[in-house]
# Entry
Amino acid sequence: MNYRDALSKELSYALRHAPWEYELEMDAEGRVPIDQLLNALHREEHWKDVQEADIQEVIAKSEKKRFELKDGMIRAFYGHSIPMKIVKEEKIPPKVLYHGTARRFLDSIKAKGLLPQSRQYVHLSQDMETAKSVGRRHDGTPCILVIDAKRAWDEGVKFYLGNEKVWLADWVDAKYIVDYYISKTS
Ligand code: HQG
# Structure
């Protein structure tokens, strides 16, 4: 793995899953001071030379908008699994959202709806292509669920913004899954 991808993974781990391992003080929206994060990374041999510019490069060159670095603070936009629930901005969703998953999860999803599992929120995609690539992480022939987000929102389900392509929800009842496709193309 190249240095930039490895750094991106390290940032995801620190900011989404284990800030305490780095002694980070995280605010309610998941932000930590960049200097604190850099100091923690410098204690590890592998990251002893990492600079803020390297983190800026991770953010600038990634296809996915995972992190925000602003006013000396850095946060992950989504993906958290830490016990303290990260406060996300509530937002009216588009009419339809998508969720890419594995065929083997379908029966359970139909029975229980979409659950956040190990994360704090269910992750939904703005478009089908994004959902397909999310689903491919779990299954080479993923399944794309179509979510009637308008009806869910009309009926009181809250949606939150991750980034422009990632939406979040606490739980999605199976009744809002109105269609699904099995993606045979790679
Ligand atoms: C499934 C990546 C059985 C759910 C991605 C998913 C995303 C159920 C898996 C972000 C279920 C959890 C999150 C139920 C949900 N029964 N299985 N009732 N309800 N599931 O990885 O959404 O590259 O925690 O369908 O691109 O795949 O890391 O969530 O398959 O944006 O930046 O449980 O992480 O972004 O898997 O992915 P995950 P996800 P990064």
The pocket of HQG is lined by residues 64, 66, 79, 101-102, 105, 108-109, 112, 114-115, 117-119, 123, 134, 137-138, 166 (CB under 6 Å).
